[in-house]
Amino acid sequence: MTDLRRTGDECREVLDELETYLDGECPGDFERFVQRHLRVCTSCLDRAGFEQELRALVAAKCKDCAPPGLLDRVLAHLWATR
Ligand SMILES: [Zn+2]
Fold it and tell me: pLDDT digits over 29-66, tens only?
């Protein structure tokens, strides 16, 4: 049953760096490791989905309190990178 233990270690590793992964700030090889893990591990996938929803919610809420100039710059950047 060493597989089960290894999976647990992977989960801890993935969850430890989940924030960095969602920020898109982790190294490419670690990003691939997380993506591979999320394909086989539903509990980490659920957690990642929840974190992503939370971020979207915070982003939506903060739209109302962010300085207008900042929002314009962010939107301009988003349109420019499409
Ligand atoms: Zn996992």
Answer: 999 999 999 999 999 999 999 988 888 887 887 776 66
State the distance from the centre of ligand 1 to the C-alpha of 38, rounded, in angstroms.
7
Q: CA torsion angle for 40, 43, 49, 53 (degrees, to 10)?
A: 180
Distance 82 CA to ligand 1 centre (A): 32
Å from CA of 59 to ligand 1 middle: 26
User: How far from 58 is each of 54, 55, 62, 63, CA to CA, in Å?
Assistant: 6, 5, 6, 9
Q: How many A from CA of 1 to the centre of ligand 1? A: 16
d(CA 58, CA 54): 6
